[in-house]
Each structure stands twice: as structure tokens, then as C-alpha cells.
């Protein structure tokens, strides 16, 4: 067994017996370091790559993704820098996590993606995007590792020019943080957002941080007293629970201030607690105790246990008029729900490592990626495909209910017609109306959380070209627009094919060339398929 060199470098790394863990250090020294001095010396040879490798290794270890993920996270920066020995694809190194490393290489394209890109992308670019999604679907650990790399990039950007800091931060908020949210990895998401706020809006960042710091003593005293009052109620009703103050992160405070035009004093969740219990019945019992003791604030209750978010997030949220007449936000969930909320897809491997039944929400968290991959052929180019990808990872979602009681998740702003296409392509093509919450509604109506939507259909498949005109407001999602465009493209092709055949037959007869083979004519004009040749004529 090789020396566990990581233990020399990162004191906080759990001292598990990882036989592969010295591989990154071996790559830097061409032999395993045996002392702390040896390990530090190898770091000096490639300081940037080593720092990235070690920071990512520690983050992945803390998330509990297992040995292969830790080693892959540490090896990939060295692989990127082309400092791995050339013979490492041969024994005795074939047991290293090459599948994870190849997957990370497919995700390299993410570093070049930004919503501001407007140039058309090639078919090669589209294929790279599909491979990126395929890698994510095959093993979600690579997405987690990629997010760890992005967090390290932001942490290391303090010395960069302000323009580059802003570019990295904006790309993070547009792509990486929403992806972390969609996969349920709150522990990484909030750090990505807070670092991005620091670079994009430094004045606001420091103002909010200062405001929180000034009131820290009063806020902490209030939270301690509130926790004590809650614990008394819990003990009186024999409910086992852990009650803590819930830290509010700077970006979420800034966002609420910006979007709602609120003052600092108006924020409910600057004072917030979290109650963790053993099971779901206890969650609702605690909710009853909280509402029985303090007055609930209307419109501030959300039940994400009965209706989980698309990323499988589960919790009860409420806000009450708490002690001293101050607003207080309360989250109530089970211990396992809390771990899943913090770790998201990473929880699956943590459970696997410790021999606990795996996270059943893993498939739900990545199913949207699989659907996006399966429908990627509907997009005409890479730009349209990326529009759909960004819409899917966008944090703003609406959750509506089908007639069968299933939850359908859509980007915010989606219409009833978007819903029809999300249910099934044929339902969209046959859609003639919608009933929302039991009432006939226009297809252009934006859906709201909790709407119950029923689509009224005709027998005939017949979309309208009006649906593609943005000003009419029928479709808000690129996925639905792509399906409508594809239908008309197919219909136009068939019409052109019939017209082309008729025109060609007429012209060949006029020239007394009626026996001329169509395939020979198509080949003469460089068409591989006769039907494409006829459609081009039409």
C-alpha cells in the first residue's frame, strides 16, 4: 500500500486508508513522498496545479464522495496541465478512476459557456455539449467535482483584475450556482453565490456583511432565547429534536433586498431557526407547536415535504411573529432531509460509503439531465441547446399539478401550452385549450405554483405557426418552441418532397427523359438521398 501522502498536506483530511491517494503526489514527484518534507517539496514544483488539486480533494472528501472521487479531483488538474507520466494508462495505474477523469475532461466546455455568447455554434460544438450532458448523467460525481473546482477558482481570484473577477462571478451565477441548486448541493451553492456577490457588487457585499456584524450580538441573543423557548415546548410534548440558529448567507439577503425592495429590518429570515427531528410526523407536530405559540404570517408557509422541489428538497417553511413581536423564519425537517438538502446528489455516495440505504432522490435529481440529453436532437444548433440547458438549471421554477396529481416542474414564465409540450409532444401538437384550476384559461396564461392544469386536445396533430411568434406569448420555453419548429420542418419537407417529385416528373417528360433514374440525377447534384434532392427542387 502506498503512503497516504494527502495526510501530510491537509491536516483536516480524514485519515482513511486510501491506497490510491498518493497517486497525485506521485505524479508531481515521480515517486511517492514518504515524509511531510517530501510532500511539501513536490507541491513547490507545480504550485498552481497542486493547490487546486489539494483544495478540490479536501472538498470532495468532506462531501463523502469516496476514494475514487477524491483521487480524480486531485489528478485532473495535473492531467489538464499535462504533467501526468505518459505510461499511467498502463499497469499498475489502470486501477485509477479514468472514467471520472474522462468525464471531467468532457465538462471542460463549461468554462467557455456564458449566456452573453451570441455567435452561432457548429455541429462539433453541439456534439461536445451532448457529451458533456452524457458525462453528467453517467456519473453525477463529476458535476460535484467540477463545482468544487469552480469554488476554488473564485477563492483564488482575489488577486485577479476586477474585470476578470466579474466575468468569473457572472458566469458562476448564470451557470454553476444554478446547477448546484438543481442538483440540491446547498453546501456548495451558497459559497459560489457569496463569492460572486463579492466580485460583482463589492459595496453591497461589504454593506450587508457590516450590517450583520453590527447586529450579531443582539441577533445571537434573540436566537438563543427563542431556541430555549422552542426546546421547552418540545420537551413538554416529548419530541426529540435539534434546534439551531440558521445562518443567512449574504447573496440571498442581497437578492431579497433587490427583488422585493425591502429594508434590512423587513427581512424575515435575518432571524431564523431550524428544527431537525427524527421522522415526518414529528415535522408536522413541531409545526403545530410553533403556530400554536406564535402567530403565523399569512402567505409565508410552504410544504416542501408533501410537494418536494424538483431537486428533491424537502422541508417545512414558515414565518411567525416571534418573541418581542419580531419576525422569525422557521425551517422544520428530518435529519436525513437536512443532509440531503446540504449535499444533494453527493448524499447518495455518502450513504453508500457508510453502508446506509442510498438516497432514493438521486434519480429524480438527474432525471431532468437525462430528458434534456434525450431531446437534444430537437435543437437546431448549439446555441438553442444551451438556451434550453440554461432554462432548465434556472433557479426560478414553477410547480404545477397534472389531472392525475403528479407534479410537473417548468421554468418560471411557462404557459399552459408549454405545460402541454412538457407532458408529451403529441399533447402539445393536439392542444386546443386549457383548464386551469377548473376554469377555461388562455394558452398564453403564465402558470403559477400550485396550479392544477388540464389540457384540452383535438384528434388532429396541428400546431399553429402563431405559437412561434414571441409577441403572441404562447410559448416561453425553448424546448416547446423546438418541438413546434421541428413539426413544421417535417411538414414543410413532406410538402416540398411531393411538389419536387411532381415538378421533376413534368420536366423529365417534357425533355423525353422519363426513364432517367432519380438516384443518378440526385448524385449528379451531390445529393446522397433522392428525397432530399426532390425536397430541394420543391
Structural account:
- Helix 7 runs antiparallel to helix 17 and helix 11 crosses helix 13.
- Helix content is 54%, strand content 10%.
- The chain folds into four domains: 6-199, Hypothetical protein af1432; 207-343, Beta Polymerase, domain 2 (2-Layer Sandwich), CATH 3.30.460.10; 396-476, Roll (Ubiquitin-like (UB roll)); 486-537, no CATH class.
- With 538 residues, it is of the alpha+beta class.
- It has helices at residues 6-9, 23-29, 36-45, 47-63, 67-80, 98-106, 123-138, 141-155, 162-182, 186-200, 202-214, 216-236, 250-260, 280-293, 335-343, 346-353, 362-374, 382-393, 416-423, 425-429, 478-510, 518-524, 530-537, and strands spanning 241-245, 272-277, 295-296, 302-303, 316-321, 327-334, 397-401, 407-411, 431-436, 439-441, 453-457.
- The longest helix has 33 residues, at 478-510.
- The chain has 23 helices and eleven strands.
- Strands 1, 2, 3, 4, 5 and 6 form a six-stranded mixed β-sheet that branches.
Amino acid at each position: 500500500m502506498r503512503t497516504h501522502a494527502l495526510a501530510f498536506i491537509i491536516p483536516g483530511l480524514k485519515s482513511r486508508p486510501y491506497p490510491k491517494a498518493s497517486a497525485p503526489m506521485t505524479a508531481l514527484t515521480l515517486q511517492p513522498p514518504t515524509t511531510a518534507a517530501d510532500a511539501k517539496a513536490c507541491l513547490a514544483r507545480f504550485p498552481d496545479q497542486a493547490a487546486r488539486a489539494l483544495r478540490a480533494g479536501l472538498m470532495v472528501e468532506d462531501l463523502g464522495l469516496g476514494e475514487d472521487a477524491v483521487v480524480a479531483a486531485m489528478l485532473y488538474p495535473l492531467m489538464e496541465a499535462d504533467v501526468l507520466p505518459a505510461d499511467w494508462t498502463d499497469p499498475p495505474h489502470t486501477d485509477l478512476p479514468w472514467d471520472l477523469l474522462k468525464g471531467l475532461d468532457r465538462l471542460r466546455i463549461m468554462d467557455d459557456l456564458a449566456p452573453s455568447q451570441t455567435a452561432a455554434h457548429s455541429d462539433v460544438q453541439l456534439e461536445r455539449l451532448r457529451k458533456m450532458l452524457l458525462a453528467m448523467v453517467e456519473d453525477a460525481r463529476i458535476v460535484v467535482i467540477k463545482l468544487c473546482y469552480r469554488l476554488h477558482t473564485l477563492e483564488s481570484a482575489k488577486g485577479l483584475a476586477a474585470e476578470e473577477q466579474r466575468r468569473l462571478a457572472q458566469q458562476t451565477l448564470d451557470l454553476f450556482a444554478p446547477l448546484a441548486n438543481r442538483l440540491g448541493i446547498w453546501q456548495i451553492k451558497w459559497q459560489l453565490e457569496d463569492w460572486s456577490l463579492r466580485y460583482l457588487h463589492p459595496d453591497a457585499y461589504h454593506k450587508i456583511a457590516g450590517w450583520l456584524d453590527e447586529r450579531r450580538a443582539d441577533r445571537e441573543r434573540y436566537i438563543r432565547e427563542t431556541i430555549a423557548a422552542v426546546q421547552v415546548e418540545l420537551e413538554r410534548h416529548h419530541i426529540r429534536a435539534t434546534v439551531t440558529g440558521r445562518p443567512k448567507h449574504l447573496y440571498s439577503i442581497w437578492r431579497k433586498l433587490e427583488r422585493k425592495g425591502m429594508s434590512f429590518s423587513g427581512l424575515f429570515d435575518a432571524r431564523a431557526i431550524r428544527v431537525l427531528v427524527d421522522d415526518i410526523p414529528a415535522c408536522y407536530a413541531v409545526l403545530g407547536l410553533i403556530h400554536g405559540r406564535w402567530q403565523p404570517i399569512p402567505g409565508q408557509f410552504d410544504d416542501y415535504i408533501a410537494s418536494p422541489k424538483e431537486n428533491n428538497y424537502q422541508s417545512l417553511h414558515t414565518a411567525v411573529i416571534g418573541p418581542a413581536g419580531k419576525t422569525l423564519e422557521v425551517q422544520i425537517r428530518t435529519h436525513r432531509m437536512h443532509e440531503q438538502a446540504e449535499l444533494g446528489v453527493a448524499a447518495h455516495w455518502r450513504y453508500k460509503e457508510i453502508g446506509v440505504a442510498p438516497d432514493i432522490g438521486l434519480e429524480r435529481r438527474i432525471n431532468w439531465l437525462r430528458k434534456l440529453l434525450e431531446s437534444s436532437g430537437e435543437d437546431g444548433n448549439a446555441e438553442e441547446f444551451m438556451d434550453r440547458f440554461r432554462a432548465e438549471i434556472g433557479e426560478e421554477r414553477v410547480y404545477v399539478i397534472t389531472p392525475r396529481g403528479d407534479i410537473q416542474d417548468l421554468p418560471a414564465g411557462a404557459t399552459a401550452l408549454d405545460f402541454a409540450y412538457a407532458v408529451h409532444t403529441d399533447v402539445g401538437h393536439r392542444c386546443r385549450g386549457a383548464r386551469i384550476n377548473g376554469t377555461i384559461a388562455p394558452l398564453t396564461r403564465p402558470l403559477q405554483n400550485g396550479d392544477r392544469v388540464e389540457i384540452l386536445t383535438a384528434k388532429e396533430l396541428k400546431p399553429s405557426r402563431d405559437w412561434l411568434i414571441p409577441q403572441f406569448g404562447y410559448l416561453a420555453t425553448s424546448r416547446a418552441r423546438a418541438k413546434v419548429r421541428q413539426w413544421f420542418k417535417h411538414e414543410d419537407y413532406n410538402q416540398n418532397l411531393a411538389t419536387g417529385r411532381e415538378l421533376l416528373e413534368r420536366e423529365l417528360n417534357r425533355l423525353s427523359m422519363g426513364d432517367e433514374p432519380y438516384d443518378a440525377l440526385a448524385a449528379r447534384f451531390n445529393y446522397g438521398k433522392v428525397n432530399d434532392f426532390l425536397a430541394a427542387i420543391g
